[in-house]
Design goal:
Layout lengths: L7 E19 L5 E21 L3 E5 L12 H13 L4 E7 L10 H16 L7 H10 L3 H6 L2 E6 L3 E4 L7 E6 L6 H6 L11 H7 L7 H4 L6 H7 L1 H12 L4 E4 L6 E4 L6 H5 L7 E6 L3 H7 L8
Parallel strand pairs: 3-4
Antiparallel strand pairs: 1-2, 2-4, 2-5, 5-6, 7-9, 7-10, 8-9
Helix pairs in contact: 1-2, 1-3, 8-9
The chain binds cytidine-5'-monophosphate.
Cytidine-5'-monophosphate binds next to strand 2 and helix 5.
Length: about 300
């Protein structure tokens, strides 16, 4: 078969939110010891992988929104897998972004993990292969979570993952304030952390207890006040969502995305009318681990 006719595989690469994010300590290397609760949401980017007879690795981002080539974490993920398991393989990757970059939704990390899982599938490597997980850790603190998905606890740098009982699926409104926030800058500006107990609702979930919805499960986010200080646009969105009647509002990770729950289903335009002009609204749903695994590979007839 000619290279151009090789079949491609098409994947969804889902975003995450942090329902709780607690910073327990700062280490010598500048990294922080965390306990965070991750949750997958339905907002996703799309990745197309095609094996090629032309040697080497190529990554394009036709609609923009992320760097092409080596500067992209997904490229580095693919390069690491090919170097270890298939040095002769040629591969073309096309990435179409919908997840705002630099938004605390883990878009880049999700793309990298999706490439790892896609290649693991192609090359018949187990998704919990120790070397694959090591590659994920080396790419960034959020990447190992995306190998697992659903509701999960992240400890250590956020990369020791413990899957938790799933939250009931529910609507969540994500708002990108239109500012990119640097994770490194937010962590650097954080006051010296102190180790505390987990909030009771989070501790119950971690101990295997029943989890209900986002509002019952979410504790707090230690990065939130620093994000508000560095990026007042995020605070403006947070306040506007409260005024719009949200029952729960929180910054995801190091921001700037803010997520909110409402008592009734929302339409994006309805929420937008309360927000600053630069803000973008995504009405999404939380996804369980099994839903993520079912929906990752796109069946072409439904794309
Ligand atoms: O690992 P990743 O590249 O995603 O982290 C981005 C930055 O966030 C790090 O360079 C570090 O400054 C900060 N960080 C941290 N502690 C963590 C995770 C990230 O200080 N546990």
């Amino acid at each position: 078969m000619h290279a151009l006719n090789k079949p491609s595989r098409h994947y969804r690469s889902f975003a995450k939110i942090n329902l709780h994010l607690q910073v327990d300590a700062r280490w010598e290397d500048g990294y922080h010891q965390l306990r965070t609760i991750f949750q997958t949401v339905s907002l996703h980017d799309r990745l197309r992988l095609r094996q090629s007879d032309r040697p080497g690795l190529r990554l394009t981002v036709p609609g923009g929104g992320a760097p092409a080539g080596e500067a992209n974490l997904a490229y580095r993920a693919a390069a690491a897998v090919l170097a270890r398991w298939a040095p002769e393989m040629g591969l073309d990757i096309e990435l179409r972004k919908s997840i705002p970059a630099g938004g605390g939704l883990g878009g880049g990390s999700s793309n990298a993990a999706t490439v790892l899982l896609a290649l693991a599938d192609m090359l018949e490597i187990s998704s919990d292969d120790v070397e694959l997980v090591m590659i994920a850790r080396g790419l960034g603190a959020d990447v190992p979570y995306f190998l697992v998905g659903g509701t999960a606890l992240g400890e250590g740098r956020g990369d020791d993952i413990v899957p938790l009982q799933e939250l009931a699926e529910q609507e969540v409104v994500l708002v990108d304030p239109g500012v990119s926030v640097s994770t490194a800058e937010i962590f650097a500006a954080l006051p010296r952390p102190e180790r505390r107990l987990l909030p009771a609702s989070v501790a119950r979930a971690v101990d295997g207890g029943e989890t209900a919805g986002i509002a019952e499960m979410a504790g707090s986010n230690d990065l939130e006040s620093v994000v508000f200080e560095k990026a007042p646009e995020v605070l403006a969105v947070y306040t506007a969502l409260r005024i719009a009647g949200a029952t729960f509002v929180r910054v995801s990770g190091s921001g700037g995305t803010v997520f909110a729950c409402f008592a009734k289903p929302q339409r994006a335009a309805q929420v937008e009318s309360y927000l600053p002009r630069a803000a973008r609204v995504f009405v999404a749903r939380t996804l369980s681990r099994s839903a993520v695994n079912r929906q990752r590979l796109v069946v072409e007839s439904e794309s």
